[in-house]
């Protein structure tokens, strides 16, 4: 395997793990949406997928989980399902891509082993891109609904409105990095298969090259074969040893 492909797969794995941790933090963070009012300047509210929190300016924070699953808003339910599926698919892709790395001795060293490693890496990259899309969908959906509700003209201006939280930006970064990691793993598999256990080397057209280190070639009975004269060998031009023609 060449240095470029090995660098791409290692970079893809580092980005993959960082992106999956970003998606996990997005799922657990309660800062999906934030709300601050003019009536209570010392307090602000935060809304997450699993709990709501009240943050005070003095540094205190009190969180409370949701009482009922059926009473949740529709966007929170959708975000929960998509983020959990994204984490599961991303973890599965990560576990598939690790045995396919060039530095991991998980398969045989022959051509079949190289082909199996490539299949594992491609599967891990595809699952990584799928996990990135599944992470971007709920984050963008919640952000879209927040923008629509913020600029809703039917709601009076005195009513406080929810705004973007830190978890949305973390989710966008995690989803984008998952896509990049999948593309890097897929790009590392575009080169030819490297098989170091094939024996004699082949030329450009697939014919085996001659081994000149064995000395003269022999035939079936062990006798040395006659070597053909070289094509570029200069023939002798000395005609002094030739006999003149005899005339009758």
Keywords:
single chain; 248 residues; alpha+beta; five-stranded antiparallel β-sheet; 4 helices; 5 strands; 45% helix; elongated
Terminal CA distance? 77 Å
Shape: elongated
Residue windows where pLDDT falls under 50 for at least 5 positions: 196-208, 230-234
Helical amount among residues, as a percent range?
Answer: 40-55%
Mean pLDDT: 79
Main sheet: strand order: 4-3-2-1-5
| Oligomer status | single chain
Extended strand count: 5
Largest sheet: 5 strands, antiparallel
Helix count, DSSP H or I runs of 4 or more residues: 4
Structural class: alpha+beta
Order of helices and strands: HEEEEHHEH
Q: How would you characterize this protein structure?
A:
With 248 residues, the protein is α+β, with helices and mostly antiparallel strands. Helix content is 45%, strand content 9%. It has helices at 3-28, 74-97, 111-150, 166-187, and strands spanning 33-36, 43-47, 51-56, 61-65, 163-164. A hairpin with a 4-residue loop joins strand 3 (51-56) and strand 4 (61-65). The termini are far apart. The model is unreliable at 196-208 and 230-234 (pLDDT under 50).
Short structural summary:
The protein has helices at 3-28, 74-97, 111-150, 166-187; strands at residues 33-36, 43-47, 51-56, 61-65, 163-164. By secondary structure, it is an alpha+beta fold. Strand 3 (51-56) and strand 4 form a beta hairpin.
């Amino acid at each position: 395997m060449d240095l470029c492909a090995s660098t791409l797969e290692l970079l893809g794995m580092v980005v993959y793990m960082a992106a999956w941790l970003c998606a996990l933090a997005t799922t657990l963070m309660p800062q999906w949406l934030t709300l601050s009012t003019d009536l209570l300047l010392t307090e602000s509210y935060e809304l997450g997928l699993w709990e709501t929190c009240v943050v005070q300016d003095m540094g205190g924070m009190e969180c409370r989980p949701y009482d009922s699953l059926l009473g949740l808003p529709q966007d929170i339910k959708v975000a929960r399902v998509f983020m959990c599926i994204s984490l599961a698919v991303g973890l599965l892709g990560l576990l598939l891509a690790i045995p396919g790395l060039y530095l991991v001795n998980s398969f045989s060293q022959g051509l079949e082993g190289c082909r199996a490693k490539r299949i594992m890496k491609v599967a891990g990259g595809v699952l990584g891109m799928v996990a990135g899309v599944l992470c971007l969908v709920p984050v963008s959906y919640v952000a879209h609904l927040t923008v629509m509700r913020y600029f809703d003209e039917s709601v009076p201006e005195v009513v406080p409105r929810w705004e973007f939280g830190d978890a949305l930006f973390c989710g966008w970064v995690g989803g984008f990095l998952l896509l990049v990691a999948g593309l890097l793993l897929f790009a590392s598999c575009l080169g030819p298969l490297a098989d170091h256990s094939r024996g004699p080397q082949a030329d450009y057209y697939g014919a085996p090259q001659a081994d000149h280190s064995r000395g003269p070639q022999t035939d079936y009975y062990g006798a040395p074969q006659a070597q053909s004269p070289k094509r570029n060998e200069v023939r002798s031009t000395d005609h002094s040893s030739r006999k003149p023609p005899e005339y009758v």
